[in-house]
Design goal:
- The complex is a heterodimer of chains A (116) and B (111).
- Chain A is mainly beta and 116 residues long.
- Chain A is built from no helices and ten strands.
- The radius of gyration of chain A is 13 Å and the shape is globular.
- Chain B has 111 residues and is mostly beta strands.
- The N and C termini of chain B lie far apart (41 Å).
- In chain B, strand 5 and strand 6 form a beta hairpin.
- The chains are: A mainly beta (116), B mainly beta (111).
- Chains A and B meet through strand 4, strand 5 and strand 9 of A and strand 5, strand 6 and strand 11 of B.
């Protein structure tokens, strides 16, 4: 089927505003991940969902960041009171299962967030 | 904690040159190792992977061998093409559900 999709592809916002980023994983994939790609910083893990289990939020940089996953499928990453340092590309990935070190993650095209 | 270190770019080569992008890792246990590639304007996609020591991953003419003794997973290609221009990420998965990525190496291939 279709790959991981993300929307919007680009988002420009003003400092202090809230933003929501959406991810549609590959159908049937139980695991979903959010990463942040900042210029010169590589990829930074943010949060991970597996089925109905409590998410692993260990990578969220501050309490302004939150994410939810409804019905075990679509996920929304919310950033409240955005700051300029939040500017980055936010990547979503999904994989068929979890707990396996051999699992491959399939990435979406990302959302480029620019905070003015 | 686990980490991945890869050579800094950008790397600029002429078409048909030999490519090596170095990657070393630090991890407990026996992680799986990956190379992901990000072509301009596109998302990350898996290039190749190896799941145990001495395994060789290969795809699209690229190869990397999992060397536990040197904790390395260097990416190689015998003859690069302009279409190989992209950012390459070395990564590991140690079974705790998140991939640890290197910072990426930008590759430019000149015609």
């Amino acid at each position: 089927g279709a790959g991981v999709s993300q929307s919007p592809s680009n988002k420009v916002t003003e400092k202090g505003k809230d933003v929501e980023l959406r991810c549609d994983p590959i159908s049937g994939h139980t695991a979903l991940y959010w990463y942040r790609q900042s210029l010169g910083q590589g990829l930074e893990f943010l949060i991970y969902f597996q089925g109905n289990s409590a998410p692993d939020k260990s990578g969220l940089p501050s309490d302004r960041f939150s994410a939810e996953r409804t019905g075990g499928s679509v996920s929304t990453l919310t950033i409240q009171r955005t700051q300029q340092e939040d500017s980055a590309v936010y990547l979503c990935a999904s994989s068929p299962r979890s707990g396996g070190r051999t699992d491959t993650q399939y990435f979406g095209p990302g959302t480029r967030l620019t905070v003015l | 904690g686990d980490s991945v270190t890869q050579m800094e770019g950008p790397v600029t080569l002429s078409e048909e040159a030999f490519l090596t992008i170095n990657c070393t890792y630090t991890a407990t246990g026996y992680p799986s190792l990956f190379w992901y590639v990000q072509y301009p304007g596109e998302g990350l996609q898996l290039l190749l992977k190896a799941t145990k020591a001495d395994d060789k991953g290969s795809n699209k003419g690229f190869e990397a061998t999992y060397r536990k003794e040197t904790t390395s997973f260097h990416l190689e290609k015998g003859s690069v093409q302009v279409s190989d221009s992209a950012v390459y990420f070395c990564a590991l998965n140690n079974g705790d559900d998140k991939i640890i990525f290197g910072k990426g190496t930008r590759l430019h291939i000149l015609p």
